[in-house]
Amino acid sequence: MTTTPATPVPAQEVSATLTNEETIQAPLAGQVVPLSDVPDEVFASGAMGQGVAIRPTSNTVVAPFSGSVVMIAPTKHAIGLRSTSGVEVLIHVGLETVALNGTPFTLHVEDGASVEAGQTLLTFDASAIEQHGLQTITPVIVTNASSYAEVIVGQHETVEANTAILTIVK
To answer: Which of 10, 92, 95, 122 to pair with 25, CA 20 to 30 A apart?
Structure first.
């Protein structure tokens, strides 16, 4: 009789299954900034939801989980996503960047598209944003945080894209 060895399940998946949690990965590399320190009252107050911000060191925004694109701002500076389990995240590149009319942003997905974790969503020209006197700090907001028991911010000072930054407790 031949037995097939069991396929190991990564520890993170086991933990998430046992504790009913979902992990949100960093959509870009950079310095992690508490949401309360973002120099924009709407984000800092938590009015849009709970989360964190990243002062980027890269110009590529990737999907923080597998799911779908549910909103792309006409000016391409913000993108809304929904995970396969229903967590909704807004990635808002820069502050006041709506005023740039999409010029420094290049979309790599369309509204309604299915995305895989780590897939490129958009790229941006940080120099062009800064030349207009604007900041590139990027809030990553769980917009339906009130639907969950808790949103836990990871304890990182800096992150690479695809590093776990938020844990959603269902």
So the answer is: 95
**DSSP string spanning 90-151?**
EEE-SSSGGGGTTTTEEESS-TT-EE-TT-EEEEE-HHHHHHTT----EEEEETTGGGSSEE
Catalytic residue list contains 92:
yes
Residue 19, pLDDT score = 59
- Residue 42 and residue 38: Cα distance in Å, rounded? 9
**Per-residue confidence (pLDDT) for residue 7, from 0 to 100:** 40
Question: Catalytic: which of 77, 92, 132, 156?
Answer: 92
- State the pTM of this model: 0.88
Question: Do 119 and 62 meet the contact criterion of CB atoms below 8 Å apart?
Answer: yes
